[in-house]
Amino acid sequence: MIRFSKDAISSNWFVLVALVTLLLSLAVDVAAHGVTAGDKGYIQESSGTMIIPFIYLGAKHMVTGYDHLLFLFGVIFFLYRLKDVSIYVTLFAVGHSMTLLAGVLMDFSVSAYLIDAIIGFSIVYKALDNMGAYQRWFGFQPNTKVATLIFGLFHGFGLATKILEYKMSPDGLIPNLVAFNVGVELGQLMALGMILIVMGFWRRTAGFGRHAYSANVALMTGGFIFVGYQMTGFFVS
Predict the structure, then answer these.
(1) pLDDT tens across 84-116, in order?
(2) Domain residues for 108?
(3) Burial class (CB in 10 A: 0-12, 13-18, 19+), 57
(4) Which of 66, 104, 123, 179 ranks highest by number of CB atoms within 10 Å?
(5) Total domain count, the chain
């Protein structure tokens, strides 16, 4: 992990301001697992096995899911080997898939606002981890693999909660749900590929070390924005 100097931190607040501004501009659209009105209507009206459409819907959800993408961005921020990236992404996918399928099939859900607030907290957690906060504050490093799996469970459960609200038809439910989950994982791979390309170019520049701390502060701020947005919705709904 990169050690951050005070000069590097203080000289790059413009990066933080720019990233937080971007996050705030997205906040209006981040009911973390929201589905567009058209897609919602399609899910509610669909009946029978429809593999390709639900794969598309799952992929679309993932590549437009800012909460997922920011968490993945934090997870791979300091991962340089493809093997390590694969391990963490697989853990996240396993957790995500388990609770997505189980939550819908068992018809089990809680407030989507609370789940999405926890997902926002997962972004905060990972940003603090990247900044070495736990070692400085508590003198130990949490198991990042276990944390990735656990937060993957919450991410999938959040999506399951939303799907239950849209009352998918029982006719073709299981194959459509599996197809949707396959689409989510395909979308995750596409999004991850784009993130890795951008990160690869960024890491080759001298600015990566200077801006890394500010980027994670911005990531943490974005997580707090998501938490506040969802908790506000919980209390006023």
Answers:
(1) 999 988 998 899 889 988 988 888 877 778 888
(2) 6-236
(3) buried
(4) 123
(5) 1
Residues 6 or more apart whose CB falls under 8 angstroms from that of 23 comprise: 218, 221, 222, 225
Q: What is the distance between the terminal CA atoms of the chain, rounded to a whole angstrom?
A: 42
Let me know if residue 164 belongs to a domain.
yes
Q: Which of 208, 218, 232, 234 is nearest to 24 (CA)?
A: 218
What is the number of other CB atoms lying within 10 angstroms of the CB of residue 218?
23
* Within-domain flag for 1: no
Element (H, E) at 36: none
Residues lower than pLDDT 50 in the chain: 1-13, 17, 21, 23-32
Cα gap 169→111, rounded to integer Å: 22
Torsion, CA 69, CA 75, CA 79, CA 84, rounded to 10: -100
Answer whether residue 52 is part of any domain: yes
C-alpha 75/C-alpha 145 separation (Å) is 10
- Amino acid sitting at position 79: L
pLDDT at 30: 46
| pTM for this model (two decimals) | 0.79
Does 191 map to a domain? yes
Question: How far apart are alpha carbons 155 and 221 in whole angstroms?
Answer: 19
